[in-house]
What we know:
- The chain is an alpha/beta fold.
- The chain has one domain (7-134): Rossmann fold (3-Layer(aba) Sandwich), CATH 3.40.50.620.
- Helices cover 48% and strands 18% of the residues.
- The protein is built from six helices and five strands; from the N terminus they run E-H-E-H-E-H-E-H-E-H-H.
- Strands 3-2-1-4-5 form a five-stranded parallel beta sheet, sandwiched between helices.
- It is globular and about 65 Å long.
- The relative contact order is 0.18.
Amino acid sequence: MTEKPLVGLYPGTFDPVTNGHLDIILRAARLVDRLVVGVATNGSKGPLFPLEERVELVEAEVGDLARRTGTTIDVRPFRGLLMHFAREIGARVIVRGLRAVTDFDYEFAMAGMNYRIDSGIETVFLMASERHQFIQSRFVKDIAQYGGDISSFVPPLTLQRTLARLRQVRDADEKTSGA
């Protein structure tokens, strides 16, 4: 009898996708047979990019990682409960990245709740690599918004798109404020 392939799910908003996200995706892809990167709608975070564009950016950025690891990496949007999506795609593992102790408190509580919803799906925590431990999408957007250099935090395509989107937002704000 052949064992089913191990499907992992790495969820997030990816607004924008960072080098830290890509580090976790690369490392997770080495642990599973198939990795699904689940891009959450999460409108409560006030995303810079619409869902479709976040999915497109993640797809563009993970293509090389899939080739390098030989693992199938799919990028899919989702809304609603993470555990419902995990069941839908047949995930047996949820991958979460940890940067610091503050992440652990939140992620530990979430893993406990998820386990209560479906004890057949395990949560695996991967520590961010040392050079990526401080990167957060929110900080990346803030730095870029105020003219800082984010090139070491995001891949090139995401850099271009983030700067272009922030220009669009700034231009729209200037038009509405009459400046």
